[in-house]
Amino acid sequence: MKQVLESCLTATINGETVRIQAIAPTTTLLEYLRQSGRVGTKEGCGDGDCGACTVALMAQGADGKLHYQAVNSCLIPIGAIAGRHILTVEGIANGCLHPVQAAMVQTGGSQCGYCTPGFIMSLFAAYYDGTVNDACVEGNLCRCTGYLAIRRAASLVASSPVQDVFRDRLAQTATELGEVSYDGAQSQFYRPTQLSEVLALLQQHPNATLVAGATDLGLDFSHHRKSYPVLVSLEAVVELNFMHQTTEAVEIGAAVPLSHIEDRLRGVFPSLDEMLYWFAARQVRNRATLGGNIGTASPIGDLPPVLLALDAELKLASAVGERTLPLANFFKGYRQTDLQPGEVIVSCKIARTIAPGAVRRLSQSYKIGKRGTDDISIVAAAFCIDLDEQNQIVHARLAYGGVAATPVRAIVVEQWLLGKPWTAETIQQAKSHLKTAFTPLTDLRGSAEYRKLLIANLFEKFFVEYP
Amino acid sequence: MNSSDMKSVVGKPLNRVDGHAKVTGAARYSAEFPVAKLVHGVTIQSTIASGKIAQIDTRAAERVPGVLLVMTHLNAPKVSGEAGGDRKLPLLQDNQVRYSGQHIGVVVADTFEHAMQAAALVNIRYDEEQPALHLKEHLDQAYVPQGKIPRDQPPDSAHGSVEQGLATAAVKVEQTYTTPIENHNPMEPHATTAVWQGDRLLLYDATQGVFGAKKKVAAVLGMPPENVRIMSYFVGGGFGCKGSTWAHVVLTAMAARQVNRPVKLVLGRMQMFGPVGFRPETMQQVSLGATREGNLTALRHAGTSITSTFDEFIEPVAKTARMIYACPHIETSHRLVRLNVGTPTYMRAPGEASGSFALESAMDELAYALKIDPIELRLRNYAEFDPDKKLPWSSKSLRECYQQGAARFGWQKRNPTPRSMRDGNTLIGWGMATATYPTNRSPASAIAQIKADGTAVVRSGSQDIGTGTYTVMTQIAADALGLPAEQIQFELGDTNLPETPVSGGSQTAASVGSAVHLAGTEARSKLLQLALMDQASPLYGATAEDVIAQNGRFLLKNKAANAETYGAILSRHGLKTIEARADAKPGEEKDKYSMHSFGAQFVEVRVNPDSGEVRVSRWVGAFGVGRLLNAKTANSQLIGGIVYGIGMALMEHTVMDPNRGRVVNADLAEYHVPVNADVPSIDVIFVDEQDPHVNPIGVKGIGEIGITGSAAAIANAVYHATGQRVRDLPLTLDKLL
Questions:
Q1: N or C terminus: which one in chain A shows less Cβ crowding within 10 Å?
Q2: pLDDT-flagged residues of chain B (< 70)
């Protein structure tokens, strides 16, 4: 790791090399683009909620190859684009309109036009992935068209994309992210590639803040305008970017983006697949990491209930060594964790084996929100039930988000269920226990009473779906 | 020349003429103009809802590098926020805090970051007073508004006696319905860049009305209006909140004059919840009486809505009740309650959207009480003329809308019993409601200029807020001038161009369209006259009636060989251009006819009985909106309105902290607008309708009718699915369990 800090970052924007200097590394990519006159990319909220700022980041996908990833530029600290290639709406018309641009004109998918660049870039990224569908624009809000004209544009470009300069560019070999040590406007940004370097930096800078995809911390840059004297990015750390799959277990590195988990683990854990569908939007999943979603310890984080129900185990590392910890013991209070100063989350391990004596496992997750996608949960729940040959419950996990100060299991009910038959009668009794298991809050997303109903009803829904 | 000549380009599903600029990022919005020596402004907002600023310490802020100005009530120039009509603006003239989020200071610095940093360092001490924040707690202070509701109507109306009508009714429905505060949330935040050139002021502003902004800014700053120029070439949506000139616009101009540099000020998304208007909370009482056969004997719609402590805005919820159904006894009223909130404003179909939720829900309740199909109930009370104005309709196709919409939807297969239709465990509900919106028109002017190269430029102040003004005006101009659309350049968004009204009230097509049509026709006519009187022209001696215009050429109807191009005529006369100006205004039609669009909304919902989740799964809307200028933009406008209605029905709700009035969901994560996944297939039917009376081009306006009736149709469908009548929007999951 270079100890001499550089005063300049280089990146590529629309094929042009740019040198970034005297800018705080927490300046967002969106701010940089607009302040440098590239105003085609729009700011609708600055919070990663609307997608108007979507750009395409060339990055390695789960398959190891280069992809265009739709990302919210309002949540990306400029330090993170060092050595990378960004495409914006201004850079994709190559002599004539790009097919997705032409389609949006053709169908009237652009009305006021302010959300248009974001939709275009989401469609652009999906176009080269062959995944142009409704889900690829789930993270883009439009207030004019009612979306139907945009869907028609998507359907025009959904089939067989052409070979063009943008596709040619993807054929290059993906190179690993290089290390970065940058100092701009009195703030330092490090992107080490080795875990040992991360741990050393944390020793050196006890005030350092860890950042991976910045989809949560990015709000502090963009919205709250907090300054961070030292940021340590985990994005390039080899030891945090892996996935091991055996018949026994799956281990996922803390810095693996959720979209990689979606692609590589599809079909392995149904409850994880389901929750990843509901998890924010494509732009966020392309950047957000498993470690980040656990580490922020939000009581309404989407993945912790799923991981709690699957008895996930964390590996943590610090300068003094490694330790493992059941996820259930990690959350200590509202946004409080067992993570010690100088310690980082390395990975999360999920067993694939079912309980001794069990013959089948039932497992699913649910997220209740007001909107069809792209919403914060009112209540999220994940269940895992192992049954023996007599249909008796031999293992039960009922985990919830949005019902307490931390993601939490209904341990009393889990224990009560052991040895009971998996029947409607058992469920009815469990429901009455569940109604008193937690004392959720009333907030603008839902009332305490409604949450209590959901805690019980979702378990019944699980039984109805998996009798 | 008459409108029947307009047949070639108008009506075609032309692609947006500004589409290329928008999909490539080339379209410049108000915050995006490169201005030399530009500096950046941010506002400081109050954190209490009522009281006085006891002390404001700006010293630390002023020490931040790059800071040029910290403007507060202590050092702001004296201006009059009440001058010039429109909204009364708090402009740092006193220490009074009227609502949470009121702009109480402006910081200007060399960079946005420095301005933000300095703003955070301004230290304010308040003398806080108990704010009034809840409509229900202050109903005893409801008062009769001083102002009028739109179209200069008094707040109350009465025909017959509702008490008498209710006394004779066999069946009655008397219910209270409520709607919450909603925020427009156009995708583009409000943005203003102010540039002073001596005593002249130039503003790039995200506005729905450049001329309104000009008048307001000039009046407040005490300037001659001709010294103020507003430009707004592309506006990223408005829906009403950019229809008025709000405090930040004037504050930007004031700050720019103080620092003697151009200043840009962009509101953050959070700052758009309060200081730029909202749809006010309403409480509406609807009383319906009917005979056993379903004939209305009484209709009362009494609405109370909130306004600010310092200005008045009436949400005209009961306006529709005056004209929508035939009934001998109709009474309506509007009351206001003053709260410590910003001043509310027009939001997509103000009054019609919120009022139709109450009235059309009540009609559904009446249909159930009478055991009559809801369409049949509406047909039995079909208004053959306007019962308020006692005038005939200029045109009305509502019957056809009910018929065609119901047929497309498959309404006859509906089992009316609640909870009777299911798909597995999921409850299915079908609901419908009537939609209507008045046809508005205001004076508007335009200039059309034909050039010797065979192209034309047409100019008219106006704005394109996403509705397609650039495109449909190009189409109207093309037909009026006899030119292909590609040869027309249409310019708007500048007060140096001919005056036009605000882009609101669904009036742009009728108002500006009429002016463009007349100007184009006149320019063409002047050009033709040159040819007809010119011996060198192959058209010499013919009459205007003998000539047709096509693709930039005049030719004789009976002898097409006798033709010449516009360019040839101009060249021969040594002219570079020929132009005409039209000042179009509404005529006597509004005294002779009642003019409205009508429609019928049909919706299917699916309700999860375990969680109460409601998903809209199918929609058919049938509308009679006069002539269509562009089938593609029109279709999308209606769909956009309907989806706005889905948001209103199921999710949109601005929530205030009950003690200090701060909006707790002032972002797009917690203020929910519909996402793609919330939108079902929506089938829009345009009922063929020709209206020879409304205006020279026969259009009725389409921006707002789509949302009207939408929330009620959904609530009615949810009742059908669940048997639960929700009278309190939004219709969230917890209200169904």
A1: C
A2: 1-7
CB hemisphere CA count around B282 (13 angstroms): 36
- DSSP letter at A451? H
Q: Is residue B89 a part of any domain in this protein? A: yes
3-state secondary structure of B608: coil
Do B211 and B107 share a structural domain?
yes
Q: Residue A330 is encoded by which pair of tokens?
A: 């990690």
The rounded distance, in Å, linking the Cα atoms of B251 and B246 is: 9
Cβ distance of A44 and B189 shorter than 8 Å: yes
Report the C-alpha gap between A384 and A377 in whole angstroms.
20
What is the extent of the structural domain holding B218? 39-130+188-272
The verdict on B120 and B236 lying in the same domain is: yes
Q: Per residue, what are the HEC states of B626-645?
A: ECCCEHHHHHHHHHHHHHHH
Structural domain includes residue B343: yes
Structure letter (DSSP) for residue A266: T
> Which stretches of chain A score pLDDT less than 50?
none
Of B120, B188, B643, the CB nearest to A146: B643
Check residue B6 and give its pLDDT: 43
How far is the C-alpha of B417 from the C-alpha of B103, rounded, in Å?
A: 53
In whole angstroms, how large is the CA radius of gyration of chain B?
Answer: 27
Looking up residue B393, the CATH number of its domain turns out to be 3.30.365.10
pLDDT of residue B7: 57
Last residue of one domain, picked from the residues B585, B613, B630:
B585
**A430 and A351 in contact (C-beta within 8 Å)?**
no
**CB pairs < 8 Å spanning A and B:** 223
Looking at residue B183, what DSSP letter applies? -
- Shared domain for B75 and B101, answered yes or no, is yes
Asked if B23 lies within 8 A of A45 by C-beta distance, the reply is no
Task: Verify that B616 and B474 share a domain, yes or no.
Answer: no
Per residue in B383-412, pLDDT (tens digit) is: 999 999 999 999 999 999 999 999 999 999
Q: Does B657 touch chain A (CB under 8 A)?
A: no
- Kindly state whether residues B451 and B531 are assigned to the same domain: yes
Q: Which residues of B touch A52 (CB under 8 A)?
A: 187
Tokens representing B361 are 């829900």
Cα–Cα distance for residue pair B500/B493, rounded to 1 Å = 10
- Residue A2 has a pLDDT of 66
Alpha-carbon gap, residue A447 to A441, rounded angstroms: 7
Q: Is residue B178 part of a domain?
A: no
For residue B314, the model assigns a pLDDT of 97
Last residue of a domain, one of B237, B272, B307: B272
Q: Are residues B597 and B625 in the same domain?
A: yes
Are B85 and B213 members of one domain?
A: yes
Residue A386 and residue A319: Cα distance in Å, rounded? 39
Residue B711 lies in a domain: yes
The answer to whether A149 contacts B682, with C-beta atoms less than 8 Å apart, is no
Integer Cα distance of B374 and B365 in angstroms? 9
Tens digits of residue pLDDT in B212-269: 999 999 999 999 999 999 999 999 999 999 999 999 999 999 999 999 999 999 999 9
| Domains in chain B, number | 3
Cβ(B609)–Cβ(B590) below 8 Å: no
pLDDT recorded at residue A95: 86
Shortest Cα–Cα distance, B675 to chain A (Å): 6
Rg over alpha carbons for chain A, rounded to the nearest Å, is 23
Chain segment B538-550, per-residue pLDDT in tens: 999 999 999 999 9
What is the separation, in whole angstroms, between the first and last Cα of chain A? 55
From B466, B643, B734, residue closest to A113, measured CB to CB: B466
Note the ipTM here: 0.97
Which domains are seen in chain A, by residue range? 241-351 (3.30.465.10), 360-465 (3.30.390.50)
Instruction: Judge if B263 and B385 occupy the same domain.
Output: no
Q: pLDDT (tens digit, 9 = 90+) per residue, B636-675? A: 999 999 999 999 999 999 999 999 999 999 999 999 999 9
